[in-house]
Amino acid sequence: MTQPGPRGRYGGRTAAERRAERRERLMTAGLELFGTAGYAASTVGQICREANLSTRQYYEEFADREALLIAVYDHVNAEAQAAVAESVKNTHGEPLTERIKAALTVYALTTATDLRRAKVAYVEIVGVSPGVEEHRMATRARWVELMQALLSTGIADGEIPDRDYRLASSAYIGAANGLLQDWCATPDRAPLADAVAELARISAALTG
Prior knowledge:
KstR2_TetR_C, HTH_TetR, mainly alpha, Arc Repressor Mutant, subunit A, disordered N terminus, Tetracycline Repressor, domain 2, DNA-binding, TetR/AcrR family transcriptional regulator
């Protein structure tokens, strides 16, 4: 039988490492089930079987199913926000329209190339509960702020009029989420590149 090692190690890993590995397995199982069968059809028991863990181990990491859904959703958004921030940095000095198009491309690729991620980000997260809706809207607000920051560079460079773009940014994020939600939910969906091109046209219209 494997014996605990020094400094709380067991099987060569610390308790923190084992817990992180369990959490990762639950996150992977949540993405798989929420992104295929759907949130409403996925029970904690099914998630645990998918992760090959016990329900006791599940509740050591997550208070309930909503907590796991939020964690998976946050992970998708965190990766997308990091990718968009990197795109904005890498396209510094280019025309605003090209910077927006590049940001949209990496946003769509990060969130929607894997249909499971798209389903979590745009379909399964919507309308779950008041608490989840509050979290979703707070995440949306952060995307609006990021869009405003990008547009502010266009103001500084004299590419677009100097005005308040908060409402335009909100309208754009709403349009982007709605378009990708519809794209994700349509069985005979168009190529993702078509959705990206449509997003670019919407952004051009909003910025004039």
